[in-house]
Amino acid sequence: MKKQILVVDDEISILKLLNFVLSKDYELIIKNSGVEAIDWLDQGNDPDLIISDLQMPYFDGSSFVRNLKISGYYRDTPVILLSGAENLEEKINQMQIKVESFLEKPFNPATLKSRIEALLSTLEKQ
Questions:
Q1: Which of 26, 112, 118, 120 is the most exposed place for a label (fewest CB within 10 A)?
Q2: Which positions carry the signal peptide feature in this UniProt record (predicted)?
């Protein structure tokens, strides 16, 4: 059975790229905003990993991830943040929440795949 990845991004081009790169190996659930993602999670869904954009309208990636990590249920779900923002590492440090990985856009698809594999294999060992 394929591992399930929740992808949260408002950029169609990024969603198409992620779908192309990851859909062969993973079941992708695609949501266009943090609000849609929270609604999906509130229905009892439990992805193995979450990939989220940092900068989205309405409910941005930092608010989305903060809500996840504060909740007891999704606290241990690995998160990879994507962003085109400058000083991404600094911004993540300012969020003061644990994010397992992050990549600046544009990112190398092979790097993303290897980070996903590493995070999922760490989960399997726990």
A1: 118
A2: none
C-alpha 97/C-alpha 69 separation (Å) is 7
Q: Dihedrals φ, ψ of 41, to 5°?
A: -65, -40
Report how many domains make up the chain. 1
**Nearest-angstrom CA–CA distance, 124 and 126:** 6
User: Containing domain of residue 21, as a range?
Assistant: 3-125
What per-residue confidence (pLDDT) applies to 77? 94
Task: Indicate the average pLDDT of the chain.
Answer: 90
* φ and ψ of 56, to 5 deg: -135, 155
CA-derived radius of gyration, the chain: 13
Q: DSSP alpha helices (H): ranges in the chain?
A: 12-22, 34-42, 61-70, 88-95, 109-125
Reported as type and span, the H/E element at residue 81 is: strand 79-83
- pTM as predicted: 0.92
Starting at the edge strand found earlier in the chain, the sheet holding 79-83 runs 26-31, 3-8, 49-53, 79-83, 101-104
